[in-house]
Design goal:
Elements lengths: L5 E5 H14 L4 E5 L5 E3 L2 E2 L9 E4 L1 H5 L3 H10 L5 E4 L7 H8 L3 E3 L5 H16 L2 H9 L15 E5 L3 H12 L3 E5 L4 E3 L2 E5 L4 H4 L5 E4 L13 H6 L5 E4 L8 H8 L6 E4 L19 E3 L10 H18 L15
Parallel strand pairs: 1-2, 1-5, 5-6, 6-7, 8-9, 8-12, 9-11, 12-13, 13-14, 14-15
Antiparallel strand pairs: 2-3, 3-4, 10-11
């Protein structure tokens, strides 16, 4: 007997991609969830406990939707669920571990990597091009010729050399920067001068002009950027954290900034989000704050759609899925 595939999908996503999904699975049954958390199948309202979905898509629209909690609740209650594609690159949230423990196949996303890499390069160019001083000179109507540092004269340490780290290296190396990547295993990569393991971090930090944190959060990396980490950083260096807020000891960072090592911290993620109004990070002159938005590039949603559709075809054919979740990246 042929397997019937039932996809739990947000209404806006279904409206956008129904025709393309049906090209892949003509007889697919869609369990469509509205923004109010109401699920319909073939136009009829169905209680969550009666759903029989085998596939789930946790795309960016779900994470931004008022129905987010309802969607996650439905996933957790589904006994028939077999595979979930998520828009997340990091899967430290215990919710993902819950799904995997139930035997569900989980695949992550690399769709945000180009956008985040652009964000990181913009941060580096802003810092080394001394854009702050240029703006101040313009505001003061001061004709001042401001020298700047070329990226080709900088050394980068990318802690977490996955999809985002490698896309960042691709861009920075095109400027002539020297790249060192850090991941679980040493190796070689066309965009990096060397790829080392986390054990070598203390020796590598003093050599880096730019330190990018793009690693996942686990018990090994929690508060990785602590007082000892900052004590090893080069004076006048740049720290960019687009990984997880838990990677950085924020009090130690503030102390280090006052010693100019790093000279600037670009932070897109924080220990607590939204960042509390009374956090000193908001008004520190050497900190740049963004609201966990480095992935919001114009191409991210499109790449997310294409990844899901590609993996959907692979799943149905029994092929190798792109970006399968690694157990080492899951919280217990």
């Amino acid at each position: 007997m042929a397997t019937t595939h039932d996809l739990l999908i947000l209404e806006s996503s279904w409206q956008r991609l129904e025709s393309r999904i049906r090209q892949i699975v003509p007889d697919i049954r869609a369990s469509v969830m509205s923004e109010q958390g109401i699920v319909t199948v073939d136009g009829k309202t169905v209680p969550v406990e009666k759903l029989r979905s085998t596939l789930g898509w946790l795309n960016l629209e779900v994470f931004a939707s008022p129905a987010r909690r309802d969607y996650f609740r439905a996933l957790f209650e589904l006994e028939s669920l077999q595979w979930v594609q998520t828009a997340s690159a990091g899967i430290e949230d215990p919710a993902f571990a819950t799904l995997v423990r139930k035997g569900i196949t989980l695949t992550t996303s690399d769709s945000q990597a180009p956008a985040v890499a652009d964000f990181i390069l913009a941060a580096a160019l802003d810092f080394f091009q001394r854009q702050d001083q240029r703006h101040e000179a313009q505001a003061a109507r001061h004709w001042q010729r401001i020298p700047f540092r070329e990226l080709g004269d900088t050394a980068w340490l990318i802690v977490g050399y996955g999809h985002i780290g490698r896309e960042t290296a691709r861009r920075a190396s095109a400027f002539g920067a020297s790249i060192t990547g850090i991941r679980r295993q040493e190796g070689q990569d066309e965009f990096a001068h060397q790829v080392a393991t986390l054990e070598r971090l203390p020796q590598l930090l003093p050599q880096a002009d730019v330190v990018v944190l793009s690693v996942g959060l686990n018990e090994t990396t929690r508060n990785l950027a602590n007082a000892d980490f900052f004590a090893r950083m080069k004076a006048d260096s740049l720290l960019v954290n687009i990984g997880r807020g838990g990677l950085v000891d924020e009090l130690s960072l503030l102390d280090a900034l006052n010693r100019d090592a790093p000279a600037r911290a670009v932070l897109d993620v924080f220990q607590k989000e939204p960042l509390p109004q009374d956090s000193p990070l908001w008004h520190h002159p050497k900190v740049r704050v963004t609201a966990h938005a480095s992935n919001l590039g114009s191409g991210t949603p499109r790449r997310g759609d294409e990844l899901f559709l590609d993996n959907l075809q692979r799943y149905l054919r029994g092929g190798e899925l792109r970006n399968p979740a690694k157990r080492d990246d899951l919280t217990s």
